[in-house]
């Protein structure tokens, strides 16, 4: 016998899928940089431009100024479909829930992803897995931005989120990494930017196939 909250999750899943069928496709891009003239932001803007050129809507959301906490393992999300922590992540989760694509992007800090993005991904994943599984078949992939080193490990860290949540990861002709140190210099890495542009187009194209 299904419990009441499980029935609610099934209904919620159906309603969200119906919402997606009735509305234009959308990709949420999450920027985990705290800087104003952030390289990660520039990279996401390039990515979003390509997605929009394919006729898919985008929204870039920043974690700047937010104090994202780590999951406290209370498991309340499997009953309510939301996170109990009141730090603004629930509003972002709600936007991801109704989207068709998700692209988290992180600056590399000491060889790994900036801490708040991993805290956010773990909580987003837990809310989805324990509840209406809104991440199922969502298209996307991670992006890493660094001055010099740690990009592939950072991408691998974030890929764990995609693999366990039954998501579809788009490729490109290189890994989704851009090399940039000082603020606002990301466009100087032309190979990195081209890789991201193609990735963005691929995300949009796969979404259109999946929605067919
Ligand atoms: C605390 C800290 C640690 C960093 N660690 C690394 C690192 O391990 N490898 C690297 O290549 N760059 C490192 N950087 C540089 C940033 O990844 C780089 O400046 C990047 O462009 C920042 O992106 P943003 O402008 O979007 O914040 C570090 C920067 C900070 C503030």
Provide an overview of this structure:
- With 212 residues, the protein is of the alpha/beta class.
- The protein has one domain: Flavodoxin domain (Rossmann fold, 3-Layer(aba) Sandwich).
- It has helices at 4-22, 39-53, 77-80, 89-97, 115-130, 151-164, 190-211; strands at residues 26-31, 57-62, 101-109, 112-113, 139-140, 143-146, 168-169, 177-179.
- Strands 1, 2, 3, 4, 5, 6, 7 and 8 form an eight-stranded mixed β-sheet that branches.
- Helix 2 (39-53) links the parallel strand 1 (26-31) and strand 2 (57-62).
- Helix 2 packs across helix 7 (190-211) and helix 5 (115-130) packs parallel to helix 6.
- The protein is globular and about 55 Å long.
- The N and C termini lie far apart (34 Å).
- The model has no long low-confidence stretch (mean pLDDT 96).
- Bound molecules: flavin mononucleotide.
- Flavin mononucleotide is lined by residues 33, 35, 38-40, 107-111, 145-150, 180-181, 183.
- Flavin mononucleotide (FMN) binds at residues 33, 35, 38-40, 107-111, 145-150, 180-181, 183.
